[in-house]
Amino acid sequence: MSKKRRMFDIDIPEMGEMEVGKVPDRALRRGPMASAINENASSLRDRKVAEDTIRQENDRLASEFVRLKRDGLITDRIPLDSVVTERLLRDRKPGADDALDELKTSIREIGLSNPIRVEARDDGKYELIQGMRRLLAFRALFADTSDAAFATIPAGIVPIEAQTETSYRRMVDENLIRKDISFAEMATLARRYADDPANNCPEVADAVSTLFKSATYTKRSYIRAFAELLMRLDKVLEHPQDIPRNVGVELKRRMDRDDGLAARVSLALQQEPGRDAQREVEILRGFVDAGATLPTGKTTAKSARPRQAKTTFQVPRAGGMAKCSASQGRLELRDDRDFSSIERRKLEQAIAAFYAALDD
Q1: What one-character-per-residue DSSP string does 226-264 give?
Q2: Residue 120 contacts residue 78 (beta carbons within 8 Å)
Q3: Which DSSP string do the residues of 58-89 spell out, in sequence order?
Q4: Residue 150, SS3 per DSSP
């Protein structure tokens, strides 16, 4: 008996349709411990990346802080009793300041727009470089009100300089832009700077060149003239800061030509003790106008020139404060803006409106 062979069809796909490649490995199963280890390693990597990022940012901020501190761009509020004035001789003559009340009013109403400038000392104190009047105003406000807001003052803090010359320059350069500082005060500072052996500058003329390097040559020559005038009359002058520039410079020139003039001026001043600033200027002006022919230095009513009255005030405006100075035939406006950039017609209209308001 024969066996019957079974027949069936086999469908073989075309070669182009068959997938070619390595058979994938069978997925390995991980236990709970392996998964925990993997997650912990991943977390540590993420944490290290975060720490590196934070460290880089801290380094960048620290470097930026050092740069700002070096350039004096760090501003902070410091206690009033931490500010001292021991290292530098001040150019301001001690005494009453008529404009201090205006500054106090401005600070009380709108705050301090320009911080003082100090140098940080190793003992925790701060040496004042710029802003004596602002410091005095804050101290007066705190004494008057006991308000904690005036117990500290905004200050730009810089590292202390090894040489005082740089510190003096910082103080002087700010004062040069102030109209109310007198030539006598600047000359006094130059004399004191020259008298200090630590500055290695024994000549007053050299001290003027060092301290007032930013000033024009003409202004430095005026300061030198006042310095020589003060050396000759220092013991008899009671109000040197009120001597006008033209009177002081011309009187010094006359003294250079007349050896006996300084003695005659001294005698005239000594004969009127207790005089006010106006009378002192009249006496000096009399020697300038009359050629110093009077032995007492007194002048007639015709030759004596009354001191012009002067009014100074501040006008608050958006973004700052405008300083105004008014006297006979003159009005000066100082503001931190470029008036030359304003259209001429607009300026003319503003001035016309100003005069119209005055005439009302």
Answers
A1: HHHHHHHHTTT-S-GGG--HHHHHHHHHHHHH-TTHHHH
A2: no
A3: HHHHHHHHHHHHHTT-EEEEEEGGGEE--SS-
A4: helix
Distance CA(305)–CA(244), nearest Å, equals 12
131 dihedral zone (left: phi>0; alpha: psi -120 to 50; beta) = left
Task: Name every residue whose Cβ is closer than 8 Å to that of residue 28 and which is 6 or more positions away in sequence.
Answer: none
Q: Is 27 exposed, middle or buried (0-12, 13-18, 19+ CB in 10 A)?
A: exposed
CA-to-CA distance for 204 and 56, rounded, in angstroms? 52
DSSP-H helix ranges across 71-182: 100-110, 132-145, 164-176
Hey, what CATH topology would domain 59-181 get?
A: 3.90.1530
The first and second tokens of residue 157, run together, are 């803090």
Beta bridge partners of 325: 312, 332
Domain ranges within the chain, ordered by starting residue: 59-181, 183-309
Amino acid at 262: A
Q: How far apart are CA 283 and CA 44, in angstroms?
A: 87
DSSP, collapsed to helix, strand or coil, labels residue 91 as coil
Instruction: Sort residue 111 into left (φ over 0), alpha (ψ -120 to 50) or beta.
Output: left
How far is residue 61's CA from residue 53's CA, in Å, rounded to a whole number?
A: 12
Per-residue tokens: 327: 């006297």
Q: Tell me the two tokens of residue 281.
A: 């200027």
* pTM given for the model: 0.51
- Per DSSP, 177 falls in state T
Q: What does the pLDDT profile of the chain (360 residues) look like in tens digits?
A: 555 666 666 666 666 655 666 666 655 566 677 777 777 777 888 888 888 888 888 888 888 888 887 777 778 899 999 999 888 777 665 556 666 888 888 898 888 888 998 988 888 899 998 888 889 999 999 999 999 999 999 998 888 876 677 778 777 776 666 656 788 988 988 888 888 887 888 888 888 988 888 788 898 999 999 999 999 998 899 999 889 999 999 999 999 998 889 999 999 999 988 889 899 999 999 999 865 444 444 444 444 444 455 677 777 777 677 777 787 777 888 777 777 778 888 888 888 888 778 776
